[in-house]
Design a protein that fits this description.
With 332 residues, the chain is α/β, with parallel strands linked by helices. The protein is 49% helix and 15% strand. The chain folds into 2 domains: 25-126 and 199-317, Alpha-Beta Barrel (TIM Barrel); 131-194, no CATH class. It contains 15 helices and 12 strands. α1 (2-22) packs parallel to α14 (311-318) and α7 runs antiparallel to α8 (157-171). The model is unreliable at 1-6 (pLDDT under 50).
Length: 332
């Protein structure tokens, strides 16, 4: 612990000096869920979550070091301003679950900072499968499960994480909801009740939509990999999510985020479809910074891994170093 703190203390002056050299820029950060520290330690898929106490510290750090925290709309405005010399960050949550309403939005409200929500409309509609969430819940709460006809005992958090990764990798793909349904049937799990245990509701989103600090964008209807769809099906996912949010919440949704969001998941055809669907911007999960001249329909965003609970790790995003590393490694 002392070594970690000492290392962080040494890195901060270096990061600040590097930041001055990098100059004005925007950094879009994204994550999916948040949990309290005690729960985070036990979660089978904990990298999918931010430790809410760490997020609290990181927000305080940004404010103390004079970063502007902005909406996507404001980031787009600054992109078009040739005289802008600011450093700014946007935080967005993809999908949106109950903890968005219960944990994350209240934290941003306490800091008086804006937050963007990219909503998968099938979640509050109850029509999208959230099988990774349900699988994780069962592996967290049960002492044993039936898996492929065999009884599997669940032990330490590490063992549960390893089992989650193995099952999720085996299920991943279009057939995942069917595998999950069979798993729930074998283990007497009520799929509907599990959905609403974790899903955000339209009532929650309605309350959030009236908060001046909350910006709501679209993240498709069913969370497909857009590049894998026909143009007609892809357009229906984009436009359908925008129309549903507008009608249900009385908004004019202007911004979109691609599910998965890497180079293989969304390309030039899909960026054009986002424009055609009526959006003003579209975000990916290709790491990097944004500056003037950036195409606003292929915005880079940096996904925060829940295990990176240090400000020093976040500084790597803010400096654009994770984007450089990802491009060198071919992970775009």
């Amino acid at each position: 612990m002392i070594t970690t703190l000492a290392g962080a203390a040494l890195l901060q002056p270096l990061a600040q000096a590097a930041s001055r050299m990098v100059g004005p820029r925007g950094c879009l950060l994204t994550f999916h869920r948040a949990a309290t520290p005690d729960l985070w330690e036990r979660l089978p898929n904990r990298d999918f979550y931010l430790d809410i106490d760490f997020l609290d510290r990181f927000l305080a750090h940004l404010v103390a070091h004079r970063w502007d925290v902005v909406t996507v709309g404001e980031a787009i405005r600054r992109l078009g301003d040739e005289d802008d010399t600011s450093r700014y960050v946007n935080f967005s949550i993809d999908d949106c679950y109950r903890d968005t309403f219960e944990l994350v939005a209240p934290l941003f409200r306490r800091h008086n900072l804006p937050l963007t929500l990219f909503v998968t409309t099938g979640i509050p509609d109850g029509t999208a499968s959230i099988w990774p969430i349900g699988l994780e819940d069962v592996l967290l709460e049960r002492d044993e499960v039936l898996l492929d006809g065999e009884l599997t005992r669940l032990g330490t958090p590490e063992e549960r994480r390893a089992l989650y990764q193995r099952i999720a990798a085996n299920w991943d793909g279009p057939e995942a909801p069917r595998h999950y349904a069979a798993f729930c049937a074998a283990n007497n799990v009520d799929i509907k009740a599990m959905h609403w245990k974790h899903a955000i509701t339209w009532e929650m989103l309605d309350a959030l939509s009236r908060d001046p600090l909350i910006e709501i964008g679209a993240h498709t209807i069913t969370h497909p990999r857009i590049s894998s769809l026909t143009s007609e099906a892809a357009f229906a996912e984009l436009e359908g999510a925008r129309v549903r949010l507008n009608e249900r919440l009385g908004l004019n949704v202007e911004h979109f985020a691609f599910p998965y969001g890497r180079a293989a998941d969304a390309g030039p055809r899909d960026f054009a479809l986002a424009r055609e669907a009526g959006f003003l911007s579209a975000a990916t999960t290709r790491k990097g910074l944004i500056r003037g001249g950036q195409d606003q329909f292929s915005l880079p965003r940096n996904t925060i891994n829940g295990s990176h609970r240090s400000v020093a790790a976040m500084e790597m995003h803010l400096l654009g170093l994770t984007g450089i590393a990802a491009r060198i490694a071919g992970r775009v």
